[in-house]
Amino acid sequence: MTSIHPETQHAEAALDHSKTHHQLGFWRKYVFSIDHKVIGIQYAITGLLFLFFGFCLMMLMRWQLAFPGRALPVIGKLFGESNMPGGIMLPEFYNQLGAMHGTIMVFLGVVPLGVGGFGNFVVPLQLGAPDMAFPRLNMASYWAYFLGGVTMLVSFFVPGGAAQAGWTSYPPLANLVPTGQTLWILGMLLLITSSLLGSVNFITTIIQLRAPGMSFWRLPFFVWAQFVTAFLLLLAFPALQAAGVMQLMDRVAGTSFFMPEGLVVSGQVAQISGGGSPLLWQHLFWFLAHPEVYVLILPAMGIVAEVIANNTRKPLWGYRPLVFSVMAIGVLSFVVWAHHMFLTGMGTAMSAFFQTTTMIISIPSVIILTCLLLSLWGGSIRFTTPMLFALAFLPMFAIGGLTGLPLGLATADIHLHDTYYVIGHFHYIVAPGSLFALFAGVYYWYPKATGRYMSSKLGHLHFWPTFLFMNGVFTPMLIQGMQGVQRRLFDGGETYYHAQDVLWLNEVMSWSAWGMALFQIPFIVNFFWSLKRGAVAPANAWDATTLEWAAPSPPPHGNFATPPRVYRGPYEYSVPQHEKDFLAQFDPDTGAPAPVTV
Amino acid sequence: MSEVIPYTVETRPDTGVNNVKLGIWLFLSSEVMLFGSLFAGYILLRVGNPQWGHGQSELSVPMATLNTAVLITSSVTMVLAWAACMERNFSRFRLFMASTVALGGVFMVIKYIEYSAKFHHGFFPSTSTFMAIYFTFTGLHALHVLAGMVVNGYFWLPGAKMFHSEPQRFANRVETAGLFWHFVDLVWIFLFPVLYLL
Amino acid sequence: MRQLLGLPELASAHGGEIDQMIVWVHLLMALMFVGWGVLFVYMLLRFRRKRHPVASYTGVRTRASSYTEWSVVVAEAVLLAGFSIPLWSERVDDFPPEDESVIVRVSGEQFAWNVHYAGSDGVFGRTSPALVDPASNPVGLDRSDPAAADDVTTVNQLHLPVDRPAIIHLSSKDVIHSFMLNELRVKQDAIPGLDIPLWFVPTVTTAEMRRRLGDEQFNYEIACAQLCGIGHYRMRGFLTVHPQQEFDAWLAAESTAATEVGGDDFWN
Amino acid sequence: MGTGSDLDLHEHIDVKKHVRTYIVVFVSLMALTLITVAVSYLDLSTGPAVALALLIASIKGSLVACYFMHLISERKLILVTMGFTMLAFFAVLLGPLLTEINEVGP
Ligand code: HEA
Ligand code: HEA
Ligand code: CUA
Ligand SMILES: [Cu+2]
User: Fold this and answer.
1) Residue C41's CB: how many other CB atoms inside 10 A?
2) Neighbours of chain B (3+ CB pairs under 8 A)
3) Torsional sign, CA C202, C208, C211, C216
4) Whole-angstrom Cα distance, residue A206 to residue B126?
5) ipTM, two decimals
6) Whose CA is nearest to atom 1 of ligand 3?
7) Contacts of B132 in chain A (CB under 8 A)
8) Chain D window 46-105: which residues touch C at a Cβ cutoff of 8 Å?
9) A539, A550 in Cβ contact below 8 A?
10) Which among B4, B2, B10 has a CA at the least distance from the CA of B168?
């Protein structure tokens, strides 16, 4: 293989580019594209929009939580008499907002952005592959996701409004609420289909399309994270698929999969055959949903690892332990699900089992965090925008993860279950955790996708206030939860005596959330402004080592002008006796001794 | 598309498989989990219900036995169709593939007769948990049969063009379709005793 | 420590152990967070580009990290085996003898708690879903059953004697609710179709707690912790903990099978 | 493109032998089907009846998987994947049941 110079490659690729792309019309190129990069960007933009939408739902709820029963000025009346008569929110609307916030954030926001967006865009590039293994399947996967999203949005407009039984949709409640729930199930079935197609594609691509020289132990950590994530999606999602079909039958065909005999609903004996089990749903739901939470975090960890290695200018500390830890998380995440069900009447044996597995699965997380943390030691840290978000991820994930421990100990969970402590726990992981990592990813790979950097000034203006306000939203939740304030309360606890002492925090959280919204404006502006005006980035925008930086920016159809070859591990930064402070995977340089990874 | 995805047809030396083979097996993994979750539901509901409808007395065992035979036969014709492909014997391939599709059709017709008999006697999914499981599981399985018939039908008629241009690629595709078809058969092999005999 | 964490007042025998366990975990968490956090900030300062322009290829060589990880494993194992699992077993396996306890049936409905005492004969009357009438017979008690004659049912009012074990049989008429007594550290999902028993010993009477808090309005609340529909946020009942004699007097007075409906301010 | 690898050629040669195997498997499957139906009319008590029916079904399933789906001569990669799948399969199959059995209360 000849040496690969970004510049010459760019020229070659540009030629290639004009050849292949001429024939494709607008629709085939940008809408029904089968190019993994276009699909990745489609996923990412759709995901960001849904994140924003989910955030808007939440800001509405936060009004009601801060000022229960008060009319929302100006925009309140826009939501219609059936939702907010006179601008005052009804409980059924609050419940819709809550359920849909959870669903949208998890299934339509973070996962599509982390797996569909970054996974699609980056993984084939990092492998040195021309595309995903099944490009058409890839397109189908995006469109199934898109339809699923549309179904969820439409559900707000059917009689009775959207799903309102929580994102967990526990029956029998979910069997009794209005039509929106049926659309929720249909939407989920589409999203599940999308994820299954996607995960088959990812696994095949990673196993089959690695460039020559790219052995498994040379894969960037991000690819490993996506690999394990894909297995989680593949094996866990069908459980919800099955449960969804059963709930659909319960709702439309009158079966009783989840309803026992003798239900009395609003004073009437329910006309059903009975004989079902409400707990069956919970088992199947959590069999999916626990692995799903790791789907929310593993790609994020992958991004953080890439950004940290790049911005400390040194190899990741403990690459192998990191890889073994994600694998361990992958396997173990299938046997901890019932820690969400400790209070459903579990006996000692099973609760001991699930507590123990839950404690065990926290250990690989500790190892991952420790490795990432110790990677900083001896580095030469550049505080670029992606690095700021990646660094903030570490302590924020730590708070979220550590608060998982008391929840995982069943006896402590008696007090904390279904309180705001749980809400605080997982938001620390998914919001200033996953979301920050995703922001880091956007800033980091933006030059690859567009050929331009995002503004670092605006980036800082985005980061610092967001970091501050995130804690303003989520720390008070832990305090409220410790006091015993339950979650999903329409009035934020105003009715309850035991919530009175911490009620004032509701306003703090709401103002923080709205303040945070204000400081997303720099991000949105930056995102669009930099498309045309950002500083032009070279192909290897961050002096990085992994293969995506061997392709031109933006990479043409087919990615690499000459198929790349891999010579070494993914994080050879600051190799002794090498003149530059990085030695890329695709750099055939033979001057340096083959270093041994720690 | 000008660029070519490697290993769509030929096997990758270090993994020993091609993309399609790996892809279909991964897809089947998810199918295993789908039906696994359904069976988990069956077990939980059955154990929690002391008086359980006895399949034999509520469903038609002869019909189901016949259907089992039909599906197993179709699995054999499927695998023979693939063998014919490997031997590059086009007319034999056509014959076996046609039989596979036809047997799938027979299965569906018998299923239809069974369903209408149930409806006729006033048995609906809402009648009891047993009926709910019966209709849901066999319905989902029937959808799989239908999907398999569509795929097989495609390779039998319009898709068979490829036999002449890229025979090995075509054989791989038939093998892939076959793996799905055998899986559908395999699911039935478990559904049959669980629903009808126990 | 309890106050520092912001745990609520404590009013049950087992609650102390739960609190203690929560305190221990949070100590461990704080230790880990501060330990890693200090290291984190130190590294950010020491290894920033300005101060440390050339990165080291090998990074840190240390075994300290594995020792720390092993300590975390040990700490978690101690919490599990020493506290959580035995305490859980005490909650679900070691029920007090029935004749020494007060036995109550509680069932949730949208959006109220129905309470059912066996009355002086100690035998619960037969109940049936078909007999449920939301206004007059919320638990569906069969009045023709002789054992039902002296049964006491209330809505949203649970009364218990202090310092005596209470066994509650929890269920639900419609959807899943969660029975929560915050000050007693009790929480248990109420699931339709299941009868889940739980037990605890209240240790502080309502009157005593009022004195402690200096608040005459105080009442123990029965909260609902599981989303159960539009009225989830107001599905609130009350627990009154009496001295034994007072409780006996109350039960005797109620044993006339009268139904106490919506008496939220009954005890005030 | 389109040229078969060694593996494919190998299979090409073996097809005749394969076909014979398929027929044997087919006959066994049919026989086992009849056996399982016959056994179900024996009125065994629930325990043994379930065990026997599942045993026969498992044998039939393995025959289909091993021979029709060629698992018996499949690559390690596929076998490992299916191995993991089976672990998850048994987790979802048995986890809920075991938890249910351990439920407190009557
Ligand atoms: C991405 C999402 C995510 C992740 C990664 C986790 C991780 C963990 N979760 Fe969480 N969890 C959720 C999302 C997540 N969870 C959600 C969404 C819910 C609620 C669902 C609902 O009911 O709606 C939930 C609920 C939930 C419950 C149920 C609570 C209840 O309903 O009562 C439990 C109980 O065991 C639990 C436990 C844990 C544990 C032990 C971990 C462990 O894996 C955590 C391990 C991590 C650590 C231990 C951190 C170690 C780090 C350091 C030591 C480094 C320190 C570094 C610095 C300071 C720089 N979680
Ligand atoms: C991934 C999951 C995720 C994420 C990221 C979030 C993010 C947030 N969540 Fe959410 N939440 C859930 C998952 C999530 N949540 C779930 C599962 C529940 C439980 C639901 C239930 O009870 O059923 C819940 C419940 C929940 C509650 C409790 C409601 C209740 O119990 O009644 C609250 C209360 O404040 C809340 C608040 C917030 C806030 C303020 C954020 C903020 O952090 C949001 C910040 C968002 C942004 C900063 C978006 C920025 C995006 C852009 C700016 C895009 C720009 C676009 C382009 C450039 C194109 N959430
Ligand atoms: Cu009842 Cu919430
Ligand atoms: Cu979990």
Assistant:
1) 11
2) A, D
3) positive
4) 45
5) 0.94
6) C177
7) 249, 253, 255-257, 273, 276
8) 103-105
9) yes
10) B10
CA–centroid distance for A205 within its chain: 21
Q: DSSP string spanning A138-173?
A: HHHHHHHHHHHHHHHHHGGGSTT-B--STTTT-TTH
Atom 24, ligand 2: which residue's CA is nearest?
Answer: A102
Backbone angles phi, psi at C167, to 5 degrees: -110, 125
Structure tokens at A454: 């995002």
Rounded CA-CA distance A448/C89 in Å is 56
Query: What digits encode the pLDDT tens for the residues A451-482?
Result: 999 999 999 999 999 999 999 999 999 999 99
- What is the CB-side half-sphere exposure of residue B69 using CA atoms within 13 A? 14
pLDDT digits (tens, 9 = 90+) for A504-558: 999 999 999 999 999 999 999 999 999 999 999 999 999 999 999 999 889 988 8
pTM of this structure: 0.94
Cα separation of the two ends of chain D: 66
- Closest chain C residue to A164, measured at CA: C229
Closest residue in A to B18 (Cα) is A208
In contact, B147 and B111? CB cutoff 8 Å: no
Output the CA torsion sign for C237, C243, C248, C253.
Answer: negative
Contact A234, A206 (CB under 8 A): no
* Residues A39/A28, Cβ–Cβ less than 8 Å: no
Output the ligand 3 site: residues, CB below 6 A: C 108, 111, 177, 224, 226-228, 232, 235
CA distance D33 to B172: 30
Cα–Cα dist B176/B154, whole Å: 13
Which chain B residues touch A129 with a CB distance below 8 Å?
Answer: 5-6
- CA atoms lying within 13 Å on the CB side of residue D56: 25
Neighbours of C66 (CB within 10 A): 12
Report the pocket of ligand 1 as residue ranges, CB < 6 Å. A 168, 293-294, 296-297, 339-340, 358, 361-362, 365-366, 369, 373, 394-395, 398, 401-402, 404-405, 407-408, 413, 417-418, 422, 425-426, 429-430; C 32-33, 36-37, 40
Cα separation of A478 and A402, whole Å?
12
Question: Is the sign of the CA dihedral A321, A327, A330, A335 positive or negative?
Answer: negative
Q: What is the pLDDT of residue C196?
A: 94
**pLDDT tens, A178-226?**
999 999 999 999 999 999 999 999 999 999 999 999 999 999 999 999 9
Q: Which residue of D has its CA nearest to A240?
A: D92
Cα–Cα distance for residue pair A226/C164, rounded to 1 Å? 55
Q: Which residues contact B22 (CB under 8 A, 6 or more apart)?
A: A203, A204, A207, A208, B15, D77, D78, D81
